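task queued by scheduler; priority normal; single chain, no ligands, no partner chains; default sampling; output format set to structure tokens
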Amino acid sequence: MKYFKNADEIIKEYSVTERFLNYVKIDTQAKEDSDKFPSTDGQWDLLKLLKKEMEEIGLEKIELTEHGYVMGTLPANLPPDFPKDKKMPAIGFIAHVDTSPDSSGKDVKPIVHKNYQGGDIPLPGNKEIILNYENSPKLQECIGMDIISSDGTTLLGADDKAGVAEIMDAAAILKKHPEIYHGEIKIGFNPDEEIGMGTKHFDIKKFGADFAYTVDGGELGEIENETFNADTFVATFHGVSHHPGYAKGKLLNAVKMAADFIEMLPKNGVSPETTENREGYVHPFDIQGGIEKTQVKLLVRDFELQLMKDKEAMLQELCDKIQAKYPKGKVETQILEYYRNMRFKLDEDLRTVNYAVEAAEKSGIKVKMSLIRGGTDGANLSYRGLLTPNVFAGMQNYHGKYEWVPAQWMRKSVVLICNLAQVWLDRSAE
């Protein structure tokens, strides 16, 4: 097999940087509470462009669905001696076209800082935004590379347009080189991942992959096979309204009930601002209401299901204490299931993760097994039957104006995708 142990073997044919610089100029910022799907019209602009580029590459079965999913197929290119009694799975690569609602994605002006030699990188559009080792420690690993950032007035959009560009470039390379054997490859790009809707209308059957990878991770070598388990705990406090001028002994303020509840929450070790790595958290993120009724919503997260349930039991115990403190009122609770740790599904068939590790090693990339302190489209897809771990796209400091990505890391991602397709072919032939 023609494994690319050295990225320089195909560097003259890379188009990933040019594609990326083009994609980030299209405003695809997702919008919460939109009544449209995709949530913003700009996402359609990039999706239509990707459909056109798929056609130019020569992919087949190209379709842009009514809900904004563009899919295409690179047909299998099997070696003549591939065993006829062996099944070659179809492998999918997926990335999302939208950018975060947290920071503007309009009029992105990407800058390529060529041959970075260390030190600060001031961004000309905003004098307050300076990339340095303090806010971007991974810069120390990127000496001599081409660092791509915005001008400091917007985010960059590498999350996940880096992944989009890498998948498209890998498809173009594999199409150009029939001497590189591989099975059938499915490519899919989806909208609205950043607002938790990326797989809402994803048609797994139509996509046609047996296994897949989202190309939406961070630093070079990162392979992610875990997400949080995620629920939302909803506490609703019911008080008794009365004219405040004549309220003695009669009024019960639901706002104060909710405030007492929030004050009782643990201050250290169970909140996002005091946890890291494998530590879960409880996070009040929304409070609405008035005297008669106030509702508090809390995110509950942990990598282990029982530890998440323990946190929910703790919240229920606090609500019970509020009920006891205010017997004239009423406290109602509800748990809304959001998503589960994709590790539980990926462990059912370890090939997806193991082959990604093997492909990284064959690409000369040091593997960094990692976990996602959040969710991913891959988690939802895995629980719907399409096992989908996440591999690196290269971006850093995403969702804000400090975002950046090295061009060389994006090229390494292209190499990984090409080699991953070949590892699946090799192992399926055994």
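post-processing summary
- The chain is about 30% helix and 20% strand.
- The chain has two domains: 7-227+341-429, 230-338.
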